Amino acid sequence: MQNTVIFQTLLGPVGISEQDGAITELFFAKDAQDSVGGQATPLLKEAEKQLLGYLAGTRKMFDLPLAAEGTEFQKTVWEALRSIPYGETRSYKQVAEIIGQPDASRAVGMANNKNPILILTPCHRVLGSDGKLVGYAAGLDIKKELLKLEKSHVSR
């Protein structure tokens, strides 16, 4: 059974889902009062605690079991995204090189677009080759805020 909680953050309402002991989704909700079912399991409570710590600048890494559904290629890209250090960014081309497929920049972009576990799998740390903010499921304003937040806490 999938369980989901929605709670308020400084960036707006966020939902986190888990199934079979692993986080399967993190998304920005339309309303903190949205009803999605399930219960606030210990894992969801811990995920909420870690996310709020991250947004407060006191947590730079997450320690949660993740189980995103996707193709093998997508999972490889998402794993590479989790290797990008807090406060740093990479281009789509650099991520393609990290996974050993230097000509797969576009495919990396598509995998980023399908990332179901925002923030925990930090697709917001991927920029265009010219350093510009491009694409983010929750909108470029949220992406900009996440990068700004990390930059402001990187040396602490």
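[next item in queue]
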Amino acid sequence: MNLFSVVIPVLNERDNIASLVREVSQHLHGRVAFDIVCVDDGSSDGTAQVVLALKNEIPELRLIQHEACYGQSVALLTGVQNAYGSWIATLDGDGQNDPADIPKLIAHLEKSPSDVKLIAGWRVTRNDGPAKRIASRLANRIRRSFLHDGTPDTGCGIKLFEREAFLSLPAFNHMHRYLPALMQRAGWRTVSVPVNHRPRGAGRSKYTNFGRALVGIRDLLGVSWLVARHVRAHSRPVQETRP
């Protein structure tokens, strides 16, 4: 049986993380072998203490803590590097991704060809405010026009991907928003699967639409350059002939 790891980058989500971790455990117990890696990206609200208090209840849970806030992509990379599973499921720490969708993504993986290395969640119905929905729709449209990755919702936090394939990708801050294009650049296939999207339970988003736009423009240009300049050689072994 494959071991699956669930990686949850989290920043100041003290009031959301406990229920989210319990849901992950509830939906995976008895279905697959798994571990859960929470990466606390420099929280200042006691998030780490909440996670530590859950360890006796959920033995599959581990906590890794950054000394400062390095960003979601760096926290994701830390989690994947320390995960035990050969396949990684990711969730945002705010509870808007539904852990009940993880078995759905795993079932989709089990019937997919071996060259599919990423199954991305697709939030068909968004539970966000109007400004955030409009900004996300516009960002996805611009990204698709540049990258042609065929992915309707690259910003969805719930994904399932092969650990080895992910670790072979170029690592940079905000890379998590471009995983489909980066996987395709490496020669792998990606698919999108409709998933549930829930209202935020407590707290507020750590990123503003304006902040996303500022970094998104530079990142999009950089990823476009990476995709355009990538060369994948096709080779074959040559047998030595003997006289």
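[queue empty]
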